[in-house]
């Protein structure tokens, strides 16, 4: 997609990459628990609420995947399914991390797989096995016995079938965003992860951004006091990309024809969920949602798509701007927005407000109680020395050189491999994958029901109030 970062300008030595690995091991410090409940109880279920999907019973053999460490891997044998724009971009980042060996790649377009294979051989590794024999050839890939971790970067409809196949074949899996598009799919990944004891990670790169990790450190240090409100969004003008006859233009416009809600919730929501300690003392409870009318795609098409194109027969359903409000079980609120069809500057909001201060991104600014100058935003420079996240301190230079989304893509890959090699629990687990993806179907349900509240299932089946060792 248009967020795709250009290929690395500079090479990165493996020695440099590993240099930070040991130092960053200290990062795996335990997560602080969210303080005592902000609200005494969850509001009782009301007749006007959209009913929650039934919580499937937990089979007796199942147990939770919260805080479960990976087994240690001296090196991580990686396979990639989907070697389009995102798959190749992230593959480049993985190849710069010490201890990664790419063994297999799959794509339905042989040329795309071949381009990805060249990245692997250019990095000095043996040519990976290629699976390009149709849309179910990934099933042969996941059956190989030389893969530890499968990274999935395909169109949304394939995410869950591929994640499930990988886990059932005994592999950990990391899936691009959103991981799932229906509540049934959310439950499917939870059940299969618990049954197979394999992790299903949401590859939410925005959680590894410089500002996001800085703010996370500040939250954990109590700099904002008790958090009460957050704001998150994906506001990105994708109109040109959505009408292209290649890459995401081939599939990403389709959901706009049949769905109306927040189609892409996780880039903004993931970091705020981290600040709030979601599944580590709090949980999303319900949301209400409403959409504006659809204008953007129709108007853009009229002005830019040649007459006679079959695209002119399409009818778009998805409102241009979707706004949801999420209430957490602890009583806190999150504003969540989605707009990919308006001429607006890029924005993920990335805002939090607590009893001792507030942060707002785009551009990054901060106000902590008592700051000089009164109630005005301040630059964040004054807090960087104290709160910069060790991942950025240790490998930030390398991350910036590689450049994927300003460095956050490398930090994500580096941290994923670090957890696998050192036998740490992943930063996000299958419950996060399900809960961060769930606002898509829940916002659709709420919009379709006159903005009635739609309740989140408890994907942890009650384990959300406990602690976790996530970094
Ligand atoms: N985290 C981020 O910043 C970010 C950025 C861009 C895209 N994404 C996500 O990454 C995913 C891929 O997006 P993209 O931009 O690379 O799209 P893309 O269209 O460029 O690539 C998708 C690839 O999947 C392949 N594919 C489709 N069906 C397949 C199948 N059955 N088996 C194997 N390969 C198959 C396609 O041929 C294509 O090469 C999407 O989920 C998207 O939302 C995330």
Can you walk through the features of this model?
- This protein is of the alpha/beta class and 471 residues long.
- The protein has two domains: 16-35 and 63-204, 3-Layer(aba) Sandwich (Rossmann fold), CATH 3.40.50.720; 207-389 and 426-465, Dihydrodipicolinate Reductase, domain 2 (2-Layer Sandwich), CATH 3.30.360.10.
- It has 16 helices and 14 strands.
- The protein has helices at residues 14-24, 85-95, 110-122, 138-142, 156-168, 183-196, 210-220, 239-242, 255-258, 266-276, 296-304, 381-387, 390-402, 408-422, 430-437, 439-448, and strands at 76-81, 100-106, 129-131, 149-152, 172-175, 200-202, 227-235, 284-291, 322-328, 333-339, 351-354, 357-360, 365-368, 454-455.
- An eight-stranded mixed beta sheet has the order 13-12-11-7-10-9-8-14.
- Helix 3 links the parallel strand 2 (100-106) and strand 3.
- Helix 6 runs antiparallel to helix 15.
- Nicotinamide-adenine-dinucleotide binds at residues 1, 3, 81-87, 106-109, 112, 135, 138, 153-156, 158, 176-177, 205, 247-248, 250, 405.
- Residues 1, 3, 81-87, 106-109, 112, 135, 138, 153-156, 158, 176-177, 205, 247-248, 250, 405 line the site of nicotinamide-adenine-dinucleotide.
Q: What would the keywords be for this entry?
A:
471 residues, 2 domains, six-stranded parallel beta sheet, 14 strands
Helix content: 25-40%
**Largest beta sheet: strand ordering:** 13-12-11-7-10-9-8-14
Element string (H = helix, E = strand): HEHEHEHEHEHEHEHHHEHEEEEEHHHHHE
Listed once per kind, the bound small molecules are: nicotinamide-adenine-dinucleotide
Average pLDDT, rounded to a whole number, is 89
Distance from N terminus to C terminus (CA atoms, Å) equals: 29 Å
Any guess at the CATH architecture of the largest domain?
2-Layer Sandwich
Counted by DSSP, the helix tally is 16
The CATH homology group name of the largest domain: Dihydrodipicolinate Reductase, domain 2
Which parts are unreliable, with pLDDT below 50 for 5 consecutive residues or more?
1-47
User: What is the domain total for the residues?
Assistant: 2
The CATH topology assignment of the largest domain is Dihydrodipicolinate Reductase, domain 2
Structural class: alpha/beta
Largest sheet, described in full? 8 strands, mixed
The total strand number stands at 14
- Choose one word for the global shape: globular
């Amino acid at each position: 997609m248009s967020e795709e970062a250009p290929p690395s300008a500079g090479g990165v030595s493996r020695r440099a990459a590993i240099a930070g690995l040991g130092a960053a091991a200290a990062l795996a410090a335990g997560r602080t628990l969210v303080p005592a409940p902000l609200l005494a109880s969850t509001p009782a279920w009301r007749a006007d609420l959209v009913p929650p999907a039934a919580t499937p019973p937990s089979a007796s053999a199942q147990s939770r995947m919260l805080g479960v460490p990976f087994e240690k891997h001296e090196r991580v044998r990686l396979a990639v399914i989907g070697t389009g724009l995102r798959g190749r971009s992230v593959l480049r980042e993985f190849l710069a991390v010490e201890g990664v060996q790419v063994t297999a790649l799959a794509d339905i377009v042989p040329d795309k797989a071949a381009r990805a294979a060249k990245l692997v051989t250019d990095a000095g590794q043996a040519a990976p096995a290629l699976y390009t024999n149709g849309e179910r050839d990934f099933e042969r890939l996941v059956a190989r016995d030389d893969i530890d971790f499968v990274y999935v970067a395909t169109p949304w409809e394939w995410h869950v079938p591929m994640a499930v196949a990988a886990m059932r074949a005994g592999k950990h899996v990391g899936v691009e965003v959103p991981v799932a598009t229906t509540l049934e799919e959310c439950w499917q990944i939870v059940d299969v992860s618990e049954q197979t004891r394999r992790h299903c990670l949401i590859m939410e790169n925005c959680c590894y951004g410089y500002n996001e990790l800085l703010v996370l450190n500040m939250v954990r240090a109590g700099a904002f006091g008790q958090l009460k409100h957050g704001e998150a969004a994906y506001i990105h003008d994708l109109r040109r990309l959505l009408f292209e006859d290649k890459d995401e233009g081939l599939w990403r416009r389709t959901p706009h024809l049949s769905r109306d809600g927040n189609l892409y919730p996780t880039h903004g929501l993931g970091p705020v969920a981290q600040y709030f300690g979601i599944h580590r003392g709090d949980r999303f409870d319900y949301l209400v949602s409403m959409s504006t009318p659809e204008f953007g795609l129709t108007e853009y098409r009229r002005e830019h798509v040649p007459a006679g194109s079959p695209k002119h027969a399409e009818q778009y359903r998805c409102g241009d701007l979707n706004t949801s409000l999420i209430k957490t079980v602890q009583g806190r609120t999150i504003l969540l927005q989605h707009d990919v069809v308006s001429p607006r500057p890029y924005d993920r909001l990335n805002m939090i407000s607590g009893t001792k201060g507030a942060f707002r991104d785009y551009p990054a600014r901060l106000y902590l109680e008592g700051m000089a100058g009164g109630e005005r935003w301040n630059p964040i420079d004054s807090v960087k020395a104290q709160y910069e996240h060790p991942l950025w301190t240790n490998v930030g230079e390398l991350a910036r050189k590689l450049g994927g989304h300003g460095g956050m893509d490398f930090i994500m890959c580096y941290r994923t491999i670090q957890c696998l090699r050192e036998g740490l629990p992943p930063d996000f687990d299958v419950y996060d994958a399900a809960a961060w993806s769930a606002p898509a179907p829940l916002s659709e349900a709420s919009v379709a029901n006159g903005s009635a509240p739609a309740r989140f299932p408890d994907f942890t089946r009650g384990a959300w109030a406990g602690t976790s060792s996530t970094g």
